[in-house]
Structure formats: C-alpha cells, structure tokens
Amino acid sequence: MKAYIALIKKEARENWRTYKTPLLVAVFILFGVISPLFAKLMPEILKQLATTGVKITLPPPTALDSWAQFFKNMRQMGLLVLVILFSGTVATEFTRGTLINLLTKGLPRRTVILAKFTMTTVLWTSAYALSVAITTAYTAYYWTMPTYHHLILTFSGPWLFGLLLISLLILGGICFTTTIGSLLTCGGAVILMTLINIVPTWQASNPLTLITQNLALLTGKLAVGDFWPAALVAVGAIVISLGSSIIIFDRRAI
To answer: With b meaning 16 or more CB within 10 Å and e meaning fewer, what string describes 152-183?
Structure first.
C-alpha cells in the first residue's frame, strides 16, 4: 500500500510539472462556460451568417440546447483532449527508463498500472465534474431548469467512457511501449465501436451509447434499462484492459 500511495504522489507531481493537470482543468472549465453561452448565442450567430434575402427562423434556445452542446463538446473535443494529454502516461516510462530502479527493488508491476489508472481517473473525474458544475450554474442562470430524468446515469455515461479510454491508453502503452501505440490502440477501439454501431441489434450494448444518447436519457426518451447494457460492457472492457495490461507487463522484460 505504501508503494501504491508513493506512486500516486509521483504521478500527481509529474502531471503537474508537465502541465497536464492545469491544461485538463483549463480546457474543461472552458467547455463549462462556452456550452451554455454558445447555445444562447446560436440563433444570433446564424442570423448574422444568413445571406441576403434568406430568413432563418429558430425557436428560442432552452436549457436542453445548453446540455446538447455540452455533450457534443465532450464527445467531440473533451475526450480527445483527455486521450492526447495522457497518451504517453505509460510509454514515457519505457523511453526514459524511470521504472527500472523501482522494479529492480521489488516494486510489484501491477502497482504501477493501478497507480497510473487511479491518478488519471482522479484528474479526469475532477475536471469532468467541474465542467458539469459550471455548465449547470450557467444554464440555470440563462434559463429556467426543466424537469430532468436519470441525472446520475446521464452524466455518468461520458465519465465511464473516459475511463474506458484511459484503460485502453494504458493497454496500448504496455503492448507497444510508445505513445503512438497507445493512440492507435485507443483510436482502433473507437473505430471498432463505430463500425459495430452500424448493426442496430448491437447498438444497445455498444459503449458508444454512453456518449451519444445522453440527451435522450436526460429527457426521459430513453429508459434506464436501455442504457445499462452499454455501461456493463464498458465496465467489463475496462477490467479486461487493466487485467491484460498487468499480465503483459508482468511478462515483459524492462
């Protein structure tokens, strides 16, 4: 346990010194601010972009437009920022050889994997929760908040998908020992999920549901039971990815 805590502190220091922590927090604060603001200003922006003689009529923006923009930002940019910032979380240890001394002194290799996953999860959870809180505050300021459904499950979707991406980055780093390998593993998994999503009968259990159906769940158009299969598959994939990382790392020569 002492080694585990020491490694977490080491990860925390390195993430701060390499500006990963402040960058992640800053980007997600920005998402929290611009999501409701962009939804509020979108009708005016479209009016300004309209060509002469073309009239654009849009309904007044609502709180749901703000959340639609938030989930879109998370899906298109937020998760991408997470992947880019932490793509080298394992690969850099191999290139710099920083683990050799620790491992030769008897540090369990699984402790390295678990500490990296824990620290990255803490940063991702903190940044995501902060972004949700800021979006909630600004949305409540601009609009009257409607009745929402399944709040915890709705906002847990992108968070859980982020954990899945983190576990895939670690697996890719262990398998290929390069940042490119981590990115290719993560990107390949997302492409595979996108292809699987083409089959209608497989969509319900596809982890992509966690980041594509949030608004439907929030408005009650999607039942909780329609969301659970994807969540369970994502949890299973995380466990398999971390377990595989530990097994492969135990057998890899440093």
So the answer is: ebbbebbbbbbbbbbbbbbbbbbbbbbbebbb
Please give the span between the terminal C-alpha atoms of the chain, in angstroms, as a whole number: 23
Q: In sequence order, what are the residues at sequence separation of 6 or more whose Cβ sits closer than 8 angstroms to the Cβ of residue 27?
A: 78, 81, 127
C-alpha dihedral, 141 to 44 to 71 to 217, nearest 10°: 80
Q: Which amino acid is at 16?
A: W
The pLDDT of residue 102 is: 73
Q: What angle do CA 212, 224, 238 make, to 5 degrees?
A: 60
Q: Looking at this protein, which amino acid is placed at residue 11?
A: E
pTM for the whole structure: 0.93
User: What pLDDT, in 10s, does the model give residues 159-214?
Assistant: 999 999 999 999 999 999 899 999 999 999 999 999 999 998 898 899 999 999 99
Task: Give the per-residue pLDDT at 182.
Answer: 94
Of 192, 129, 184, the residue nearest 162 (C-alpha): 129
pLDDT tens for residues 39-59? 888 767 766 665 555 666 667
State the DSSP H helix or E strand holding residue 72, giving kind and residue range, or none if neither.
helix 63-73
Distance CA 165, CA 186 (A): 6
Tell me how far apart the alpha carbons of residues 247 and 243 are, in angstroms, rounded to a whole number.
6
